[in-house]
Amino acid sequence: MADSAPTDILEMRGITKTFPGVKALQDVNLTVRRGEIHAICGENGAGKSTLMKVLSGVYPFGTYDGDIVLDGEIAKFGTINDSEARGVVIIHQELALVPHLSIAENIFLGNERRRAGGAIDWNRTNAEAAELLQRVGLSESPTTPVYALGVGKQQLLEIAKAISKDVRLLILDEPTAALNDNDSEHLLELLRQFKGQGITSIMISHKLAEIAEIADRTTIIRDGQSIETFDLADAGESSEAIQDRIIRGMVGRDLDNRYPDRESHPGAEVLRIQDWTVKHPTQPGRVVVDGANLTVRAGEVVGIAGLMGAGRTELAMSVFGRSYGRDITGKVFLDGKEVNVGTVPAAIKAGIAYVSEDRKHYGLNLIEDIKRNVSAAGLGKLSKNGFVDENEELKVAGEYRESMNIRTPNVLVQVGKLSGGNQQKVVLSKWLYTAPEVLILDEPTRGIDVGAKYEIYTIINKLVAAGKAVLVISSELPELLGICDRIYTLAFGRITGEVDVASATQEGLMALMTQEHTQETKA
Amino acid sequence: MTGIANLKELFTRNLRTSGIYIAFVLIILLFSVLTDGLLLSSRNLTSLVLQFSYILILAIGMVIIIIGGHIDLSVGSVVALTGAVAAVIVIRGGQPWWVGVLAAIGTGLLVGAWQGFWVAYVGIPAFIVTLAGMLLFRGLTLEVLNNVSLSPFPSEYSAIASGFLNGVFGGYGYDTFTLVIFAIGVLGFAYNAWRQRRARIAYKQTVEAPVLFVLKLVVVAAVVMWFAWNLATYRGLPAVLIILAVLVMVYTLVTKHSVFGRHVYAIGGNLAAAQLSGVRVKRVNFWMFVNMGFLASIAGIVYSARSSAAQPAAGNMFELDAIAACFIGGAAVTGGIGTVTGAMVGGLIMAVMSNGMQLMGVDQSVQQVVKGIVLLLAVAFDVWNKRRAAAAR
């Protein structure tokens, strides 16, 4: 090790970052020692990625409160280039490579090796690229186009790109999320080598087993606050003991009355999904959902718990008119009868509604008004001979504005101007108007404030009281525990457990959600 | 709420749409002054309608394409091709005029289906498909015409574009029929506006103050009747104007009130959301282009009838005028926004500018420069307006 003394390479002090209406980070402290591998753990939405974006200059100096101290002096990064110049390089979860450029071109993109006069020096570019490829253990020609590489190799290429910039502090956001076991193992080995060369790494990962295996210390982030930092060596003897310790830190909060009460009277089975398998749309052979089986009864709220990349949204969208994936196999039953959900109109007709996790991209037409968004999926009900009854449309939208408590003066307000909570109510109105039997709600409370969340939960309760079947996907375990009757856990595309909410704990769910090998477990 | 505040709100709230009407009025005023009133003479107004009708017809289809988030570069070539088909059948084949019309429309529909297939079902961007179409259909035109002009069309065919309806109720130095038709139109417009207003009140929506409402109707009625008077004192009601009026009414209805129209706006506004709301995106895209082919064939018939000939170079650059009309008329480059009325006003702005400059004897080269700058400023205004709206959020 270059420097065995425990001096800190990085200290983030009292970082607070506010977005309009949301405090994403509040007084977060993070200390990273020189030459260590430091893991950052927390649930989705806890603020890990935001913290890393602050560190790497994506959110420039002045847009956050608090200090970043790098090598003992306060750093004021205005752009990513500033942080990279100081040796801080971030590798994002979504790879930032240009598919039709070669490996060498990608490595030196924005940092081209030039001759005097400005023309690119291709000999030097390719020679240096070859050296870097060797360092990361990637045996490919520098001139190979990137689209010809698998995800694992692309991830290595990202790392080669990072070390081309003389990296001293490498930040990896979910580096192994898309990798298979072999590629993951290789990548972790590489991180160990870097550690030997004195490169410090910060790693965000949901794979706790990996963290237990490779990291020296970990910092837990919860609800935008740093909870604790501890040495993994002190946390336990076995990998399991360490993982349990981390999970306790991640979920350690009490449930208060943030969820409206509801009496549960589940009826007959409404939705059954059988042997549902979905392949990735562009990466051949990658199975995103693997033989999923689940049921939802009338008047029942069923949750799907899973970490990022577990296949939650992919499962939902593939059921909803094959809106995701390819080579989809399996059956969908509604009220005991197999139904065709091959297209979105067919799925809607069968009585399924899907409220997307990303309402701005998949849920709303932001440049239109509330009225037209509410009617968008149910125009058939509003029209005769191909023409829309606009008075009726206005009436319907007005009724939903009242019943959903959408806070606007009228229904002619452009949807893009509404708050997140009101937007979500518009999306819900749109789907309720199609009179579905089954509602799939994907992260129904993402990005909306606590008050609006309570309202959304109340709406869900009303729906199930009216006998609808509701399937909720959420990253927030307390939310699932607060509103569901039953919870399925999804890990790496497989359903790893089915838990009755009465007997469920966050720790138990988290263990199932991080379980990498498949066994049907009844908790 | 006072009338003034209401009037101010009417303009500022919807600057995007009201801005272009103001610009239209200003341009008319500017050129009537510059041409010593020649622009607004009976004779010139009539020829303005005849001369730019086919651009306006194309702009109706184009604005739907643009709202859907596409573009069509081939319409000029399709105008030529449909006119050529009609000419070959009527002039060379000696068939009656209506066979030529049907053949032209059939050709337009086939062209539309061809382009719609590639855009909707194969997934090739419309820019590429219609750029190819531009070359392809121009080539086919040359092929059909053997590279020579065909003329003249029989008078029944030419009457589609250069005919006038008049004298039904007798003339007294002006044509009563024209005035009656326009009066019916104005009354229909007023009745419709009143009905909409009543419905909006019934549904507890805000409406303009009664004074403003009446004032608006009076202004519209006065302008329209003045226009009618000018036509009536010249040669009466041009047949083309009837075709255009019917198309504008039908397509305003389709874009505003039909399920198809809604789906077009939804696709242009947010493709992914439209798809997940159950819109059959491919089908809608396909029919958008079929419709464009249909309207291009109507424009082709009108154009060939007006010149009483089919020429290999007919319709050259028409696509650019039609596209410019849509953007000047407030359509958004990114799709999802635009109206048929806006496109018509955009087209008329171009028409008045071209016509005004022609009357002034301005050089062709200068005309091009001015048109180009107006298009650029119109879209710049659109971009600025959007940014302003985003900042106000």
Describe what you observe in this structure.
The complex is a heterodimer of chains A (523) and B (393). Chain A contains 19 helices and 23 strands. Chain A starts with 7 loop residues before the first strand and ends with a strand. In chain A, the strands form 5 sheets. In chain A, strands 16-19-20-13-21-22-23 form a 7-stranded mixed sheet, sandwiched between helices. In chain A, strands 6-7-8-3-9-10 form a 6-stranded mixed sheet, sandwiched between helices. In chain A, strand 17 (383-384) and strand 18 (387-388) form a beta hairpin. In chain A, helix 7 crosses helix 9 (239-251). Chain B folds into 2 domains: 43-166 and 238-392, ABC transporter involved in vitamin B12 uptake, BtuC (Orthogonal Bundle); 170-234. Chain B contains 16 helices and 2 strands. Chain B has a two-stranded antiparallel ribbon with strand order 1-2. Chain B starts with a helix and ends with a helix. At the A-B interface, helix 11, helix 12, strand 18 and helix 15 of A face helix 11 and helix 12 of B.
CATH superfamily of the largest domain in chain A: P-loop containing nucleotide triphosphate hydrolases
Strand content of chain B: under 5%
The count of helical stretches of chain A stands at 19
Please estimate the helix content of chain B.
over 70%
Distance between the termini of chain B: 24 Å
Beta-strand residue percentage of chain A: 25-35%
Whole-number count of domains of chain B: 2
Q: What count of domains describes the coordinates of chain A? A: 4
Q: What is the CATH first-level class name of the largest domain in chain B?
A: Mainly Alpha
Keywords (chain A): ATP-binding, Cell membrane, Membrane, Nucleotide-binding, Repeat, Sugar transport, Translocase, Transport
GO molecular function (chain A): ATP binding
Pfam families (chain A): ABC_tran
Protein name (chain A): Multiple sugar transport system ATP-binding protein
